[in-house]
# Entry
Amino acid sequence: MPCDAGPCDAGELIRRAAALIFDVDGTLAETEELHRQAFNLAFVRRGLDWHWDRAVYKELLRVTGGKERMRAYHARLGIAPPLSDMDIAELHRIKTAHYAELVETGCCPLRPGVTDQLAAARARGQRLAIATTTSHGNIDALLSRALGKRWAGDFDAIVAGDDVPHKKPAPDVYLEILARLKLDASDCVAIEDSANGLIAASRAGIPVLITRSMFFGDDDFTAAQVVLDDLSELGAAQQKIEKQPHAQ
# Structure
């Protein structure tokens, strides 16, 4: 399917999949702004004169992983010596705690259509998985608030950035998901929001559905099967498909 395929094509792609594999940040929820705020709070707390505005953060998002992002920013400043692994880890710990506090306020709901698609997938007997660069703590903070404390029971596999040697755009998280699900790449659909996510899933051979997000809406999604604004576009399309005589 071409990348400009519409909701009906997307609905068919989703319906035929044995498993749906979701990215988290920007895909399940517009979390990146909260991450940005949490980084800035951590910098203040540690006495750093760093401040990432939206333009700077959008650029830094090309580097996957929070620890890696901080290292890249420090290298850009040209300040020697580099921050130690211990300093980076402590900054990241503080940032993660601030992120959880922000999420707990309820200011970051799941994106339109996400809850409905999760429920529809379960009703169809499809398997669900998560393949993300973010940490397990961040995933739990978001989904415990959005789906309840037992959210993880609905997912057959959850692979985070620190579970694999290389983060997106490397395919590692997706290859690990396929191994855990014991499924072929062609039997799955990856739902992503960024070019790095698209590249990672494509390198693993998995078809990709893109939902445009705040920070990555202008990425190149030429290689995607389908590009939508959000998953709410799938609702009417799937109802139409399921009413067709051949639908099971």
